[in-house]
Amino acid sequence: MPVYKAPLRDMKFLLNEVFDYPNHYTRLKTGANATPDIVDAILNECGKFCEEVLSPLYQSGDEEGCKLENGEVTTPEGYRKAYQQYALGGWQGLSAPEEYGGQGLPASMGLLKQEMMGTANWPFSMYPGLSMGAMNTIFLHGTENQKQTYLVPLTEGRWGGTMCLTEPQCGTDLGQVKTKAEPQEDGSYKLSGTKIFISSGDHDLTENIVHIVLARLPEAPKGTRGISLFIVPKFLPDGNGGIGQSNGVTCGSLEKKMGIKASATCVMNFDDATGFLIGPENEGLNCMFTFMNTARIGTAIQGVGPAELSYQWALDYAKERRSMRALSGKKEPDQAADSLIHHADVRRMLLTQKAIAEGGRAMLYYAARLADHMVEGHTTGDDKKADAYDDKLGFLTPILKGFLTELGNEAANLGVQVFGGHGYIREHGMEQIVRDTRIATLYEGTTGIQALDLLGRKVLLMTQGGAVREFTLKVANFARKTLTNKRVRPFSVELLKLTAQWNVLTVRLMLAARKDRDVVSSAANDFLMYSGYVTMAYMWARMAAVASDRLDKGGADSEDFYRAKLATAEFYYERLLPRAQAHATSMLSPSKNLMQLNAEHMAFTD
Q1: Most exposed of 112, 143, 324, 354 (fewest Cβ within 10 Å)?
Q2: pLDDT score for 599
Q3: Residue 236's CB: how many other CB atoms inside 10 A?
Q4: Contact indicator for 391, 467 with CB cutoff of 8 Å
Q5: What one-character-per-residue DSSP string does 460-496 give?
Q6: Which portions of the chain are predicted below pLDDT 50?
Q7: What is the predicted pLDDT for the residue at 1?
Q8: pTM higher than 0.85, yes or no?
Q9: What is the pLDDT of residue 293?
């Protein structure tokens, strides 16, 4: 059975040497306890939990799946015990405020934990992951009474959480939400409606589940301006931190899915369920974006996770499996054939996985620093700081979610290819990674939706290209500073060209969109992928610069480790980054070649 090994060396390289998290934490009010020794201990213990407890349940959970009987959902064998260990270990409250039972560590610590959990066993990690989104929403928008009632048991892991947006008639277009919320004399509301695709909608891991639900009040404006947000628990709180009577919330069915079968994806029915308004009336979508942005960053981990896991397993297989002789001559003459690792095409696939996993991890950790500042702005009441970092993070969020999940899907498929026919067989686990990863490009907004959010909303509408100018200025400043480094200069020169091109492309699309609105939609996917490749190039250049410096001056890791970083950076720039130019060409193609064909002529079946 394949096993997962936490990539602690790479994680610590990014944290301590590339992004200087120790110094970063000293500038945060929540960072006082995040000393290097504490962070190191947390990473090691979380890695052990993921390797020894979560990873062994990955394949068995897929085989068994979740079951719905008599209106109750049960998770696969071993999940409940593993979750109890998770909760007792205090992992759910790692980054939660101390006043509500958490450990008060920076938000980024939660992301580091989630990355390891998500790589070892993504379906399991979704249960506590959804709870984190509910916790963040209640913390930012709830009343003090709501925080005391719900945050404490959520932080302790005794209760779970969900987000309930999608309905049968609408997915991304939330303006079509029909779930109703009727005001009651006691200040509560009665909610009625059906939600679909609800991850963790029902399960047996916690004693209660807190649903964050979008619904409409009577006489609310039409469209997205008339949506409010509600807390709807499975069991009503008893006022003493426990649970009382059952609420009108039931699981109607479990979705039969391609993957993540150990994660309960439910159809949830709300039948006069008692709910409580959170945030202002008719501003639920704005409040929900707190949840959605959290979820989208979390979903980006499902791009890095499968790339890492598939790479680990494919690398081990390529070292052991023998087939033919290397074209450059025998590498293992005492064996019947050479190992797969000696074939250049297999190296291409493995290095692609490695570049995606390590480059994607760097993108996540870069964004996590921004998230720390944004969260601190919210918690300290510094709205100016919160808004500034929210804007910075908002620009990167669709790139992280859309680009990394697309590349994670590619990396997972490459893992199957390395295994050949054995990759298609269940016992090796590779096909499960593909099935589990496919959903990542869909939920929390498809890649197309992320692309429209990036180009249409963040770049063109909200900032008129300012978001690109601000980010590329940072990249260009880094590139100019590293031009004197012989090992890094080729990367720096390429980055300077790309930052200029990115701005030119943005302006050209802005001008084209004034004449043809379809340009935004027709160019969006290519613009997102181009943005992703350039952003990852920036990360690889930063890693290469540090590796070069450590080779000259010495570092925390071995010379081989740093040389491997430089070699992988070179591979990325020469083999993967050229893809950006294809996207640049495609995004400037007129929308006519997409829109001119009559819909009735898309197929001729008569």
Answers
A1: 324
A2: 92
A3: 17
A4: yes
A5: IITTTTHHHHHHHHHHHHHHHHTTT-TTTHHHHHHHH
A6: none
A7: 61
A8: yes
A9: 61
For residue 291, the model assigns a pLDDT of: 52
CA distance 384 to 391: 11
Say if residues 134 and 161 touch (Cβ distance below 8 Å).
yes
What is the four-CA torsion angle of 399, 400, 401, 402, rounded to 10 degrees? 40
Structure tokens at 252: 């109607």
Tell which residue, 20, 396, 121, has the closest CA to residue 113: 121
Give the C-alpha separation, 265 to 530, whole Å: 33
Is 444 assigned a catalytic role? yes
In whole angstroms, how far apart are CA 239 and each of 191, 200, 231, 273?
Answer: 21, 24, 15, 18
299 CB-near residues (< 8 Å, 6+ apart): 401, 405, 440, 443, 444
Amino acid making up residue 116: M
Percent of the chain with pLDDT over 90: 89
CA proximity to 494, closest of 367, 587, 400, 581: 581
Q: Using an 8 Å Cβ cutoff, are 198 and 73 in contact?
A: no
CA distance linking residue 339 with residue 322, whole number of Å: 4
Separation between Cα atoms, residue 448 and residue 20, nearest integer Å:
34
Provide the token pair at 342: 């000696």
Query: CB under 8 Å to 39, separation ≥6 — which residues?
Result: 15, 21, 22, 25, 109
Q: What is d(CA 117, CA 352) in angstroms, rounded to the nearest whole number?
A: 23
Distances (CA, A) of 84 to 67, 87, 203: 20, 5, 13
Helix runs in 149-283, H state only: 152-156
Question: What is the pLDDT, as a whole number, of residue 289?
Answer: 72
Backbone dihedral region for residue 151 (phi beyond 0: left; psi -120 to 50: alpha; all else: beta): alpha
Q: What are the structure tokens assigned to 450, written together?
A: 């992320």
Picking from 96, 80, 91, 93, the residue whose alpha carbon sits closest to that of residue 48 is 91
Residue 449: which of 369, 531, 354, 525 has the closest Cα?
525
Count CB-CB contacts under 10 A for residue 331. 14
Q: How far is CA 74 from the centre of its chain?
A: 26
The amino acid at 169? Q
CA distance 526 to 456: 13
- Nearest CA to 278 among 142, 414, 411? 142
Mean pLDDT of all residues in the chain? 95
Q: Give the tokens for residue 427.
A: 């016992």
Residue among 115, 358, 406, 444 flagged as catalytic: 444
> How is residue 539 written in tokens?
């990360």
